[in-house]
């Protein structure tokens, strides 16, 4: 029952990734939302999760994983209920943020619960495999379930489903999940947390609002300036702390740095794909939410299937092949979509979706594997959390960048989307190149050297850094 409870949490969290995208055109019509408003509807969720993911993991280790998991489920369910009642776009975006606060406490804490509950390596591997399969199922179910709900009951209904599932998960957690804590929890890092929020928040806001306010306007320039300043201060401050939120020493490993960048770039393509494709199918082609959801199934199904294939491929061949093939397939899938018109054949769309979905599915397992390459076992959790944060950041930036391209163009959605799909294709090429560089002999040697340093580095922190 512990595994079933954790799987429920990953199901509703994964479902929210694809189910909301299907409802965007309906939300746009009902709440009179602009393109930037739709971007914020998605990014209010992914951005908040990216900012709070590592903090939530630390809180769970310190105050109890079951307790934080239940709080997360409660906040996610409450946020979902409030989203369904939102009277305006501004309130919807705010409630999506609350939903994300709870969402940040679900997947990473669920994984910690699984690791602490299943102590046998074989049993733990099976549990994690089942957990990953449910994650893939939730992504594949989102478009169809979202289409059914939006077409039958309206866009607000996509948030209703989270409430009963969340309440059931809370009850099951109280009944079956044992409480656990880390033997030596990491110290909290409020300054680092605030700097991460400033960096990601200002960067995303600048990209989303740039087309409307003007790239050279004072507010946009100020947002980008604050983001740059926050990044500089974050690097300096975190380099001096004994237990920082983001340990800058990890980035001395080329595989880790490569995995972080790949996480951003690869998930940016997924965020961009879901955003662009939803608007294209419903706004340009005139399909219903259900029809659009059904057409998205090939992509989601391939993503789920190839996530499993990727895990096996990484186990037998290492991460290099998966990363290279993933980048190629993402690029090819996006290139096929660059020339879309209002009358592109459906069979052509499905081929492009299948190719892109396979590439998107192949990338997740090697990102985690590469990020943990050479890391001491007691620091693998933190390294994995940073990689997960990079994924969420990439998803937010993908929506921000592709949406900004659409919003900045006066030539109509179809024409503007050609440039946006070209950016997605370029990101696929970057995944391929970064995969080649970060898994070579030189890169692996840097990981081994850095891992040895991390395992033996017990030098005291500078004065004032504690």
Could you describe the 3D structure shown?
This protein is mostly helical. The longest helix is centred in the first third of the chain and has 33 residues, at 121-153. Helix 1 (2-31) packs antiparallel against helix 2 (35-63) and helix 11 runs antiparallel to helix 15 (364-371). The protein has helices at residues 2-31, 35-63, 65-85, 89-103, 107-117, 121-153, 157-160, 162-176, 190-213, 218-240, 254-284, 289-317, 319-338, 346-362, 364-371, 380-408, 413-438, 441-456.
Short description:
The protein is mostly helical and 466 residues long. It is built from 18 helices and no strands. The protein is globular and about 60 Å long.
- Tell me the overall shape: globular
Query: N- to C-terminal separation?
Result: 41 Å
Proportion of strand residues: under 5%
* Low-confidence spans: 458-466
CATH domain fold name of the largest domain? Growth Hormone, Chain: A
Largest sheet: none
Per CATH, which architecture of the largest domain? Answer: Up-down Bundle
Output the structural class.
mainly alpha
Order of secondary-structure elements? HHHHHHHHHHHHHHHHHH
Write the CATH homologous superfamily of the largest domain: MFS general substrate transporter like domains
* Cα-atom radius of gyration: 21 Å
Count of helical segments? Answer: 18
CATH hierarchy, class of the largest domain: Mainly Alpha
Provide the domain count: 3
Number of strands: 0
Give the averaged pLDDT, no decimals.
85
> Helix proportion of residues, in percent?
over 70%
């Amino acid at each position: 029952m512990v595994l079933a409870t954790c799987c429920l949490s990953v199901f509703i969290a994964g479902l929210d990734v694809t189910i909301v995208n299907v409802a965007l055109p309906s939300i746009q019509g009902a709440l009179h939302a602009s393109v930037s408003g739709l971007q914020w509807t998605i990014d209010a969720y992914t951005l908040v999760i990216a900012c709070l993911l590592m903090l939530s993991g630390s809180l769970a280790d310190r105050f109890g994983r079951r307790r934080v998991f239940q709080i997360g489920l409660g906040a996610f369910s409450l946020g979902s209920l409030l989203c369904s009642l939102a009277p305006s776009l501004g309130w919807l975006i705010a409630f999506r943020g609350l939903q994300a606060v709870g969402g940040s406490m679900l997947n990473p804490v669920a994984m910690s619960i699984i690791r602490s509950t299943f102590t046998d390596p074989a049993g733990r591997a099976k549990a994690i495999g089942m957990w990953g399969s449910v994650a893939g199922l939730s992504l594949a179910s989102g478009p169809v379930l979202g289409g059914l709900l939006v077409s039958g009951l309206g866009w607000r209904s996509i948030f209703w489903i989270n409430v009963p599932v969340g309440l059931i998960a809370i009850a099951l957690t109280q009944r079956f999940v044992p409480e656990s804590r880390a033997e030596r929890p990491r110290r909290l890092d409020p300054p680092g947390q605030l700097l991460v929020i400033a960096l990601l928040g200002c960067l995303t806001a600048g990209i989303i609002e740039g087309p409307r306010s003007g790239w050279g306007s004072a507010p946009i320039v100020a947002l980008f300036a604050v983001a740059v300043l926050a990044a500089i201060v974050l690097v300096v401050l975190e380099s001096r702390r004994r237990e920082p939120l983001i340990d800058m020493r990890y980035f001395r490993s080329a595989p880790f740095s490569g995995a972080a960048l790949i996480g951003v770039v690869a998930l940016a393509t997924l965020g961009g794909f879901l955003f662009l494709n939803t608007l294209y199918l419903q706004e340009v082609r005139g399909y219903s939410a259900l029809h659009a959801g059904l057409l998205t199934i090939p992509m989601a199904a391939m993503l789920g299937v190839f996530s499993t294939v990727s895990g096996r491929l990484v186990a037998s061949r290492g991460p290099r092949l998966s990363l290279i093939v993933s980048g190629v397939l993402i690029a090819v899938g996006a290139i096929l979509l660059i020339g879309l018109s209002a009358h592109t054949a459906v069979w052509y769309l499905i081929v492009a979706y299948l190719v892109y979905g396979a590439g998107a599915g192949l990338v997740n397992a090697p990102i985690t594997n590469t990020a943990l390459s050479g890391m001491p076992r007691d620091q693998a959790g933190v390294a994995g959390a940073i990689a997960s944060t990079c994924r969420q950041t990439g998803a937010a930036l993908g929506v921000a960048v592709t949406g900004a391209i659409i919003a900045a163009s006066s030539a109509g959605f179809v024409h503007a989307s050609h440039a946006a799909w070209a950016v997605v294709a370029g990101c696929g090429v970057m995944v391929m190149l970064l995969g080649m560089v970060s898994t070579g002999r030189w890169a692996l040697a840097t990981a081994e050297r850095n891992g040895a340093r991390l395992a033996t580095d017990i030098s005291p922190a500078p004065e004032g850094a504690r």
